Amino acid sequence: MPVKYLYLDDESIDETQSIADLLESENKNLKITVANPLAFSNQIQQIKDSDFDGLILDLRLDQIKNNDQKAEYRASTLAQELRTRATEGQIKNFPIIICSTDSKLKRSYNKSIVGQDLFDAKYLKSEEMVSESPRVAHELESLAKGYIQLSKLKGKKKNVALWIFFCLTKKNVQLIDERLIKHSFGTNLQLPIYEYARFILKEMLLKPGILLERNLLLARLGVAESSRNLNKLMSLLNKFKYKGPFNEAWERWWWPLVNNWWYNLGEGIPGLATLNASERVQILNEKIKLKLSPAKAIDKTYSTKFWTICQLYESPLDAFDGLLLDMGYEPLSWQESSYVSLKAAVDPKLKAKPISISTIDKQRFEDFKKLAK
């Protein structure tokens, strides 16, 4: 069964329909119904009476009169009402996605923290929905399935601890940082489903730390992407993959579980952070009988004690050879900082990619720029 979205936009139906058709062509498990917004009470009733698995909204719904009606509300107003009704059990829980132009998002959405918390994802209309349609279509399906999974896991229980949604055994949950499980929520929770969804998406999947993307996982293990037996290694690591809500589009691995597996490869094995890439790979090849190759550094002068990823080159990096980035938020206890290599930071080919160096490393960056000249 395909997941079904309602896409509300006060622009031309034909233009919006072409975007919906493109997304559907990229993913056969996606069905998108396009419509102009109705008057507020009528719109709420339409959604209540329908069986949609998700909602896509233009940021502004009140600019153009359609069919003798003009919506007197914006996306955030509608989203807030739907979230409230879902919490009260009047309608089912589903993802709400904002889709608009860059100029509209900069004018209002990006300035409202409260408004941002109402939406599960944000997409630029032409820059992403069209030019990156395969990714967006996959994420839309995963968002809808994630809410369905959250609803099943929560069931009719009032109190649900955050870790229930991790889809881990009780034994493996003990390896997870307690600060994550207890953060803000405590251990006995009565939260609406969208709050769980927001936390898992924005504080776990989209920020490195307790869950790692594939390239960061391989960097920690010191393994090159070009390794001959890489598929066999990934098969071994599959048991440590995150299987909770939204896992289809956001593939991640539990770092505490992988780290625990490393120490159990043999007695007296040193911690990964103390070893360079060649030493890590040598242990892997000896213990699991593979022919893996060590990852190479961005520059021959750089350390191969990789622990992070250069955000511009997307290559393994020892934080010592990088600059700390200002990501616009203070990492929580289970989250990690992001870095860019010194080489990439002054690479003229990458000037179009905006980065913000943390105040901690700004002077170091300025000194390196002078040396690079």
Describe the fold and architecture.
The chain folds into three domains: 3-150, 3-Layer(aba) Sandwich (Rossmann fold); 153-205, no CATH class; 303-373, no CATH class. The chain contains 15 helices and eleven strands. It has helices at residues 13-26, 40-49, 75-87, 102-107, 113-116, 133-154, 170-173, 178-182, 193-205, 214-221, 230-237, 255-263, 277-288, 342-345, 362-372; strands spanning 3-8, 30-35, 54-57, 96-100, 121-124, 211-212, 253-254, 308-309, 316-317, 322-324, 339-341.
Summarize the structure.
The protein has 373 residues and is α/β, with parallel strands linked by helices. The chain is 38% helix and 10% strand.
Features of this protein?
15 helices, 373 residues, alpha/beta, 11 strands, Rossmann fold
Provide the structure class.
alpha/beta
Shape: globular
- What order do the helices and strands follow? EHEHEHEHHEHHHHEHHEHHEEEEHH
> How helical, in percent, are the residues?
25-40%
Q: CATH class of the largest domain, anyone? A: Alpha Beta
CATH superfamily of the largest domain: Response regulator
Specify the biggest β-sheet: 5 strands, parallel
What fold name stands as the CATH topology of the largest domain? Answer: Rossmann fold
Give the number of domains.
3
Number of DSSP strand runs? 11
CATH architecture of the largest domain: 3-Layer(aba) Sandwich
Strand content: 5-15%
Mean pLDDT: 90
Count the DSSP helices.
Answer: 15
Low-confidence runs of at least 5 consecutive residues: 106-114
Could you tell me the radius of gyration in angstroms? 23 Å
End-to-end Cα distance, whole Å, is 59 Å
Strand ordering within the main sheet:
2-1-3-4-5
